[in-house]
């Protein structure tokens, strides 16, 4: 294997160094490769190894402390092999690697390669950042980080910027109409049929593969968040609770004397909250609850900013891969074990021991000022139904904030017996087409009384009176 | 019927009639007289009983009366959740007068044209965007057929196809209609040109409609003409029917059994093998009358039976979609066996699915892409090839138009060669 790697790297370096002279037909002394060329050769060798489905070869190009946090809880060779295996397995369809756009910067013994495009059939193409370190044996890949998506319109032959512009224009026209319609027809009041049309309409542009890259989607997203911020700044709650939906399963709850957040997630790629927006939201809350350790629920950017503001952050049980991240957060971030009870800044909580496909997922029931809110994160685990189906016997839940799939078969709602149900996790743009659950699905699962159901778009709010 | 309702006559060409009980507003012309007035009154009665319908507009509907049967088309009904659509109402005159017997869906009203909707200029923009993408998609797919070309580029084109086909307005958009018809024309041209000497060539049409050709036989499964205005023309239907010897139909859902296609097939003398009617099904008696009216050539096939029709040996495995019987046909001809699953979706049926491969060598499995536990189905049937179907059926709403990306998801890693086909595409399969 090692010989093969040397052959890959050396061969490419040799060709790069001597190619022009060879073509000219005149013999020339071999020039030493530049550091940039050496790094590019390693990158090319990794590409060749992945395309040749040679996991060993790809892993041997990686440093002893290699990391790729999106794909592996491990470090070093275990992580390198896991990542290479993933890319060569075809699990997301055939992998395509394009290094032709890569920009390499070398600073002494470290280097980066930006804009390395890695794609697959089922997940579109994303730009990646490779970090390198020079070791005794040559340059090694230290880390691979996934960046933003490349719009398919800019990725596929035959398409191009004019298609992207058209998609942007179409999406923008529809999102503007939808947003206008939703603002004129809020969840509690207005024409419910028009609301349904508008929400259904939103599903369409948000299901474009390129959605996070479209200026129209970004503008719509930030406009919706601004609506929520303005609402939070203006609204005083004297009884009951007002609930704002942010993005994905992110919520803000305000009662008479407390305001807290659940799973505040700042967005995807360029469809992201600004720093000002994140700070404005955090400026409103006393506590931040996080259900589970998935990137669309736990944003390190949001968590760090919350801690910097002195806001307690209640984290879920930590998987092995995230132990380093937890250590870096410092005091203020508290891991809440499953089943725990506690009180933070006047908000009592119980962390029901939920799971998403085996990953610990704290379903926080929070009680204060006479109201109880249950947020279920990404709850999906058959073995948890015995306690889910007893919740309604144990406590009076006013509002259930649940992902669509948690409530679509009715069991959870029957078990919890909330007064109000508000689904979440629609149109999460980091997911592929099939995983961006549409608002259509909410309307499929709404059962009506005895629960009051509301379907909210990003930035919208409802007020729930006390019992 | 008329006396049961309060009428409010407004000035102008249209009248608004309220059902006294439910209050569903019905818009109709005020000047209807005679039998047409009775028919329209029956429409108003029908409206008053539709809890999910917020309004009915029959002002532009043409009423045709023939003895005891009448039709009114188009009647726009606005569903509280899903919006407006055009329907054809068929009414019968019984002892108590006219009543609405069926409401046949014709086409959704684009949300752009809904009251309070974005407006016609948005529809034009949507058509432009959809058209641009469908043009690129079609070009890419034709240049990269299922068993040839760049499979990654094909995949991207199919995934891109999910986007315009998931527009609620899709069936009403000219580019979508043109895309469907162009691809069906493409298939027809290929069928006319292609002679199969061994193995089988399989064309995918619309939804879960397929045509299979072996050396001496050509047959079709669940040939359906489309959804609303995104439908094949009568000429296209006739052209397809001219190519086939037998039409197999799995179950009685409208996206699988198109009566227009069935009647045209029978008129051409093509045997049509119908699914059974379930006793528990709503309208079972009505369906039995429909079957009886079709006459000879249309045969109801009992689940679990087998037979031979025009040289095609077939076995109707006893499948189900919930309570509805769903014949899963395995058809054998010229040494090839093709199995089409209809809308198979019942866990109890794994009792036989798990062992199909043990007693029958299936060359090609055509499953509905959303069938329960695709991997288990493939493991039980053990086909050499799998071509999924039922993607992007435009008569379904957003959530139930299974996208092509779902096909890639569920077929990944199965122990069979698989291809994802768009409308009108074909694959040739060699014999064992």
Name the CATH class of the largest domain in chain B.
Alpha Beta
Instruction: Round the Cα radius of gyration of chain A to an integer and report it.
Output: 25 Å
- Unreliable parts of chain A: 1-26
CATH evolutionary superfamily of the largest domain in chain A: Ribonuclease Z/Hydroxyacylglutathione hydrolase-like
- Structural class of chain B, by secondary structure, is alpha/beta
List unreliable stretches of 5+ residues of chain B. Answer: 1-22
Profile the largest sheet of chain B. Answer: 8 strands, mixed
How many structural domains in the coordinates of chain B? 2
Number of strands of chain A: 22
Beta-strand percentage range of chain B: 25-35%
Query: Which geometry of chain B do the CA atoms define?
Result: globular
CATH architecture title of the largest domain in chain B: 4-Layer Sandwich
Q: Termini distance of chain B?
A: 66 Å
Question: Portion of residues in helices of chain A?
Answer: 25-40%
Strand content of chain A: 25-35%
Q: So what's the CATH class of the largest domain in chain A?
A: Alpha Beta
Notes on the structure:
The complex is a heterodimer of chains A (467) and B (432). Chain A has 467 residues and is of the alpha/beta class. Helices cover 37% and strands 26% of the residues of chain A. Chain A is built from 16 helices and 22 strands. In chain A, helix 1 packs across helix 2, helix 6 runs antiparallel to helix 7 and helix 6 packs parallel to helix 8. Chain A is globular and about 80 Å long. The N terminus of chain A is likely disordered. By secondary structure, chain B is α/β, with parallel strands linked by helices. Chain B contains eleven helices and 24 strands. In chain B, strands 1, 2, 3, 4, 5, 6, 7 and 8 form an eight-stranded mixed β-sheet that branches. In chain B, helix 2 packs antiparallel against helix 3 and helix 2 runs parallel beside helix 4. Chain B is globular and about 70 Å long. In chain B, 48% of the residues are buried. Chains A and B meet through helix 6, helix 7 and helix 16 of A and helix 2, helix 3 and helix 11 of B.
């Amino acid at each position: 294997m090692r010989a093969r790697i040397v052959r890959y790297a050396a061969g490419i370096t040799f060709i790069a160094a001597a190619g022009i002279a060879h073509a000219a037909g005149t013999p020339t002394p071999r020039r030493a490769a530049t550091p940039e060329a050496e790094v590019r050769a390693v990158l090319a060798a990794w590409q060749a190894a992945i395309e040749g489905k040679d996991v060993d070869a790809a892993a041997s190009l990686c440093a002893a402390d290699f990391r790729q946090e999106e794909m592996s809880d491990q470090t070093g060779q275990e992580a390198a092999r896991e990542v290479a295996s993933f890319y060569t397995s075809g699990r997301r369809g055939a992998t395509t690697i394009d290094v032709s756009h890569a920009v390499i910067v070398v600073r002494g013994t470290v280097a980066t390669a930006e804009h390395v495009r890695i794609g697959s059939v089922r997940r579109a193409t994303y730009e990646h950042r490779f970090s390198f370190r020079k070791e005794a044996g040559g340059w090694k890949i230290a880390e691979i980080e996934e960046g933003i998506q490349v719009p398919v319109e800019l990725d596929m032959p035959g398409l191009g910027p004019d298609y992207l512009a058209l998609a942007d224009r179409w999406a923008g026209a529809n999102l503007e109409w939808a947003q206008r319609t939703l603002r004129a027809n809020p969840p509690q009041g207005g024409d419910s049929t028009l609301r349904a049309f508008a929400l259904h309409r939103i599903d369409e542009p948000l299901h474009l593969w390129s959605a996070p890259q479209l200026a129209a989607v970004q503008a719509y997203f930030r406009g919706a968040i601004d609506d929520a911020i303005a609402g939070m700044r203006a609204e005083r709650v004297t009884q009951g609770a007002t609930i704002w939906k942010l993005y994905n399963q992110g919520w803000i709850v305000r009662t008479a004397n407390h305001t807290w957040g659940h799973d505040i997630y700042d967005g995807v790629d360029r469809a992201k909250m600004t720093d000002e927006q994140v700070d404005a939201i955090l400026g409103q809350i006393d506590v931040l609850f996080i259900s589970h350790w998935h990137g669309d629920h736990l944003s390190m950017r949001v968590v760090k900013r919350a801690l910097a503001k002195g806001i307690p952050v209640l984290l879920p049980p930590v998987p092995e891969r995230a132990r380093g991240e937890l250590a870096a957060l410092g005091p203020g971030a508290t891991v809440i074990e499953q089943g725990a009870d506690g009180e933070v800044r006047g908000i009592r909580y119980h962390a029901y021991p939920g799971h998403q496909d085996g990953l610990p997922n704290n379903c926080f029931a929070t009680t204060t000022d006479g109201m109880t809110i249950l947020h279920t994160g990404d709850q999906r685990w058959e073995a948890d139904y015995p306690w889910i189906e007893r919740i309604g016997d144990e406590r009076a839940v006013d509002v259930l904030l649940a992902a669509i799939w948690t409530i679509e078969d009715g069991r959870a709602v029957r078990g919890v017996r909330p007064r109000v149900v508000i689904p979440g996790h629609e149109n999460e743009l980091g997911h592929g087409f099939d995983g961006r659950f549409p608002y259509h699905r909410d309307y499929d699962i709404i059962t009506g009384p005895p629960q009051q159901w509301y379907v909210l778009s990003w930035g919208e709010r409802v007020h729930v009176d006390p019992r | 019927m008329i006396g049961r309702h309060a009428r409010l006559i407004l000035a102008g060409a249209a009248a608004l009639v309220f059902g006294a009980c439910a209050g569903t507003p019905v818009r109709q012309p005020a000047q209807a007289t005679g039998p047409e007035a009775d028919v329209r009154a029956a429409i108003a009665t029908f409206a008053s009983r539709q809890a999910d319908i917020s309004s009915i507009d029959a002002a532009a509907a043409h009423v045709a009366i023939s003895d005891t049967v009448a039709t009114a088309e188009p009647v726009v009904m606005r569903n509280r959740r899903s919006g407006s659509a055009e329907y054809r109402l068929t009414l019968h005159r019984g002892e108590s007068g006219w009543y609405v017997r069926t409401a046949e869906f014709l086409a959704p009203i684009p949300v752009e044209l809904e009251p309070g909707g974005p407006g016609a200029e948005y529809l034009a923009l949507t058509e432009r965007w959809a058209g641009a993408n469908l043009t690129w998609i079609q070009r890419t797919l034709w240049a990269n057929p299922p068993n040839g070309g760049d499979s990654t580029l094909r995949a991207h084109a199919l995934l891109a196809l999910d986007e315009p086909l998931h527009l609620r307005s899709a069936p009403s958009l000219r580019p979508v209609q043109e895309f469907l018809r162009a691809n069906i024309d493409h298939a027809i041209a290929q069928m006319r040109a292609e002679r199969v000497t061994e193995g089988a060539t399989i064309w995918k049409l619309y939804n879960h409609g397929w045509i299979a050709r072996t050396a001496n036989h050509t047959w079709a499964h669940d040939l359906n003409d489309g959804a609303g205005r995104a439908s094949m023309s009568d000429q296209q239907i006739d052209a397809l029917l001219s190519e086939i010897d037998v039409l197999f139909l799995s179950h009685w859902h409208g996206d699988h059994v198109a009566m227009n296609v069935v009647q045209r097939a029978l008129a051409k003398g093509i045997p049509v093998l119908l699914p059974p009617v379930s006793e528990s099904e709503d309208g079972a008696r009505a369906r039995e009358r429909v079957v009886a009216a079709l006459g000879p050539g249309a045969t109801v096939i009992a689940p679990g039976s087998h037979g031979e029709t025009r040289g095609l040996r077939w076995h109707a495995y006893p499948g189900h979609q919930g309570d509805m019987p769903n014949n899963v046909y395995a058809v054998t001809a010229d040494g090839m066996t093709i199995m089409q699953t209809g809308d198979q979706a019942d866990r109890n049926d794994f009792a036989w699915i798990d062992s199909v491969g043990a007693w029958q060598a299936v060359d090609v499995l055509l499953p509905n892409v959303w069938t329960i536990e695709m991997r288990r189905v493939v493991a039980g049937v053990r086909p050499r090839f799998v071509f999924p179907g039922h993607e992007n059926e435009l008569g379904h709403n957003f959530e139930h138009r299974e996208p092509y990306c779902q096909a890639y998801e569920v077929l990944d890693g199965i122990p069979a060669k698989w291809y994802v086909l768009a409308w009108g595409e074909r694959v040739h399969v060699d014999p064992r």
